[in-house]
Amino acid sequence: MPELPEVETVRRGLAPVLVGRRVKSLDARRPDLRFPFPERFAQRVAGQSIVGLERRAKYLIASLSSGEDLVMHLGMTGRFTIVHGGIADTPGQYAHGTGPDPTHDHVVLNLSDGTKVIYNDPRRFGFMVMMAHRERAQHALFRDLGAEPLGEELTAEYLASKALGRKVNLKAFLMDQHVIAGLGNIYVSEALYQAGLSPDKAAASLANRRGAPTERAVRLVPAIRDVLERAIDAGGSTLRDYRHADGKRGAFQERFGVYDRAGSVCQTPGCGGEIRRAVHSGRATFYCPRCQR
DNA sequence: ACTGTACCCTGTAGGC
DNA sequence: TGCCTACAGGGTACAG
Q1: Which of A132, A136, A176, A248 has minimal CB crowding within 10 Å?
Q2: Residue A123 assigned to a binding site
Q3: Tally of CA atoms within 13 A in the half-sphere of A91 that contains its CB
Q4: For binding DNA, which residues are annotated in this chain's numbering (predicted)?
Q5: How many angstroms separate the CA of A284 from the C1' of C2?
Q6: Which burial class, exposed, middle or buried, applies to A27 when counting CB atoms under 10 A from its CB (0-12, 13-18, 19+)?
Q7: In which element (H, E) is residue A256 found?
Q8: Is position A65 within any domain?
């Protein structure tokens, strides 16, 4: 589910509800998600104020007044829902398109103003961990992350330096969070399509022998940025599970050039090729064999 | 060091 | 209708 545009959309929806507010209590309704919850999880969050809500890669990070960060990952099917007012869990208090789901509502944040923020995750590939704010950058989850694609660090030179000598194909290379942090299966397919690059070509084709960027790398950087910015503007992509924190669906799935469009005609003017589906590293890739080389 | 595959878990869609 | 298989926005633990 959630790649960078979806996580960023969730962050923007949650920030006005969470930042500057105090957590009255936290209910963890099971001992774990993908990993066990932190030791003394509820006690470490209860009573704290939330002083910031950031995104890095596909992580949401709530900074607490205690000096600890609550780091959350949505996995494939994680979602947050804001429930306003009252004590009872009645459907009417939920945003449109959402409702109580006792079997998959795993964590509830009860804020001191009466608002609840509920984390729901059927497949439980998501996780929540805590760490000291000052040590976050050195933590195993963050230490080796690649460039933020919308930040200044992502340049053709950066990509070329990471790609030099790499034999993996471009699809797997761009999926690697140590290279670019935040791209996933949808937006790698879309960025390669927009840049006109074949997912099968070796990553090394982004660099020349001296490690300087090729014209392919120069084309790829703005394509990645543009796809992500347009997707954020559309509120992300809703295929199945993903929802904004207020329950709304994303709209970018209506703008896909290739993702989930196998068999349809390429929309690039003058192309007329047929979109194909292939598999790279066990994940579906969609591309136009005529305009991606 | 790098690369590919299996696996974690649940729900749903499609074929028979 | 029911049963079975394949597949799904993610990341990690291995084996080679």
Answers
A1: A132
A2: yes
A3: 5
A4: 104, 123, 166
A5: 29
A6: middle
A7: none
A8: yes
